[in-house]
Prior knowledge:
globular, alpha/beta, about 40% helix, 13 helices
Amino acid sequence: MIVMKFGGSSVANAERIRHVAGIVKSQTAEKPVLVLSAMGDTTDHLLAAAELALTDGKVSVGAIEELHRNTLRDLGLEDPGEVEPLLAELSSLLTGISLIKELSGKTKDYLVSFGERLSVRIAAAYLNSIGVKARAMDAWDAGFLSDANFTAAEIDPESWDRIPKALTPLLEQGVLPVVTGFIAKNRQGNITTLGRGGSDLSATMIAAAMQAAEVQVWKDVDGILTADPRLVKAAKPVETVTYEEAAELAYFGAQVLHPRAMQPCIRTGTTVRVKNSYNPGAPGTRIIGTPEKKAGPVRAITSRKNVTLVDIVSTRMLGQYGFLAEVFAAFAAHKLSVDMVASSEVSISLTLDAVHDLGKLKKDLSRIADVEIKAGKAIVTIIGDVRRSSEILQRAFAVCVLLGLQVQMVSQGASKVNISFIVDDIQAGEVVTALHRCFFEPLE
C-alpha cells in the first residue's frame, strides 16, 4: 500500500478537490491511505476568528462556513451529516473564547483541528460520489496518540502499534481511509497539534507504521529541484536524494519536507516521494536511505537570505579554557538558535535569523570577547557527494573568484553532505545562478 498526502493548496476549493480525487482514484490499486491538510487558508482564518473573539468578543465564522458550504455545493454534494455539526461546534467554541477571554494552547489546538476535520469529510464524501469507497477519519481514530505538549505535540510510541490495528481492517475491506493530518489526541482525550511539519509527519508516520511501499507528498513543483526556480530558470528535478541530503536542504531554505517529518521513514527505510499535484505524470523525487550512483558531485544548491553574521573574538589569552562554552551559554540564555558555525581556539563566527535583537547578547559577550554583528547576509548551501567535497570546494570558489565576491564565512556540516558559505544578501541570487550553471548546465 501507499500513503498520499496533499497540503492545503491542493484541496483549497472544489476544483482542486476534484483534481486530487482523480489522482487518488487512478492509484486505488495501490491501496492508498489519504492524508489531508485544512482547505486553503482555513487555519489562518480560524486563528483570526479566535483573535477577534478574544479581543472584541465577536464570533465570526462566515468565511469558514462559506468556503466549506460552497465547496459542498460546487461538488454537487449534500452535507454528509458531519460538516454542519462541526461548524456549529466551532461557533460554540468561539463563543466560549469570547466569554472567557482566554486562548490557551489546549484551546488553540482544539480550534485549529476543525480545518482538517472539515477537509477530510468533504473529500471523503466526494470520493464516495465518484465510486471510490472512502471513510473520513480523525487522526485519533486512525491510531494517533500524542503527548500533552499543546501546539507542538510529539507522537506517542504506542502509535506504531495502534495505527496498523486501526487502518489494516479498512484496507482489507477495500475502503480508502481519508485521515486528518497535523492533529492527534493525548491520553486525556484532548486534541493536540503536531507542530512544524505536522501534516507531513502524519503521513510519514502512517507509512512507516504500515510498512508502506512509499509515502507520496504532493506539492506544486515537480519534486525537489536543483535550485529555486524563481532564481534559476534552468532548475530541474533531482531524481533521488538521501534523507540526510533532504534534511540539509530543508534546514537551508529549500521547500522540502521538514526534517522532523522524515524521522519515521528514516527509522524504517520507507521511501518518500515528492510529487507535483499540478503535473501528476512527472516521476517526482525519491527520498531514500542509501545514496544511489550520482551523475555529478552536487545534488542541489539553495540559499537563505536575511541572515545575521556574528563574529566573536576572545579578548583573553590564547587557549583560554571554556571560551566556546561561555559563548554558547550566552546564546542559550537569550534563547537564540544558531545555524552555521566556524570556530578556532580564540574566535568563532556564526549565523542567526535576522529577526533577533542582539543588543543584550552583545553586551553579555563583551565581557570575554570583541563582538561584530553584520546584518543583511545570505547563506548559500551546496548539497553534494561527501566523497567529492574537495572538487566541489575548488569549483565553487573558482566561481566566486570569477564573480569578484568575497566569501565571508565557510562551514561544512558534520553530515559532510553540505558546504555553506556567507555572502551579502544582494549577491545570493547571482551566486546561486552561477553555481548552478557550473555544476548542472554544462552536463546538458
